[in-house]
UniProtKB/TrEMBL annotation:
Keywords: Transferase. It comes from Polyangium spumosum. One of its GO terms (molecular function) is hexosyltransferase activity. Residues 6-173 form the Glycosyltransferase 2-like domain. This is Glycosyltransferase.
Amino acid sequence: MSPLVSVLIPYRDAGATLEEALAGILAEREVPIEVLAVDDGSTDAGPAIVARLATRDARVVPLATGGVGIARALAAAHAASRAPFLARMDADDISLPGRLGLQVDALRANARLGVVGTRVEPFPDEAVGEGLARYVAWQNAIVTAEDHDREIYVEAPLCHPSVMLRREAFEAVGAFRDVHWPEDYDLWLRLHAAGFGLAKVDRTLLRWRHHPGRATFRDGRYAIQRFIEAKAHYLAPRLARDPRALVVWGAGPTGRKLSRALAAEGAKAAAFVDIDPKKIGRTARGAPITAKTSLDPTRHLVLVAVGARGARDLIRKDLAALVFVEGRDFFCCS
């Protein structure tokens, strides 16, 4: 039987967790799958584990790249895959029962969706700090396509190893790319820019393992500045299509960094807004800092770029009171 879902699992030196990760995926029996396990330069027992499992289960397809990095390893898995849906997994995470079937159902039910993730549970507890717990709680609260549209420029709204992609959408936006910011966030932004929806199954269906060796802790592409550059790169064309003056709400570090990145992409802020009365009347990056009362949705397109916890929701209320509509007259970033 031809696979309905191709599961892409790149790995390197993951022998300690790989068998458990593969067992979770291979337990899926309701959906025809193939599992493309890509050895990206391992020096441990990982490839032997995959080879052993492949002799027992024809759904396991061993591949090797020699150590080219995750984006290129994923590209190799994509090139070898056959199914209309592409699921992701990492070699140290645990996929929970029913995940793939529910994601297929979600993609089939809504032709606009290009990618569907799930809620996730980070583990082990000792590796989950306050910042990660807050990020996962934010991510898990974003479920519908409308939620993802609203939050796409705040942070990466999907956990990469939890997602399933519609092949047609994925290939239409250029598949995996090796970029100087996170490759997964780049893909979500490209899908969004092309008009494809992002959503989640409203259930926790992946256990997301964390440890000090994760790429997010050591790879320069995951630095905060790289995320800001990615947002600016995809925001700038959207801003250029709007004739209104660009205003950045936030004259502090977050707003200044975003405005600097936007200027590098050709989108210069005409003004900043801040609630601190000491800042009003000054300038930031050569533009005036004004009060919120100066804003007019017929003349201004607003980017909310603030770092204080809870500030975005307060500003959303302020802008709604000024008759600004989110997604049309303002966007929230971070």
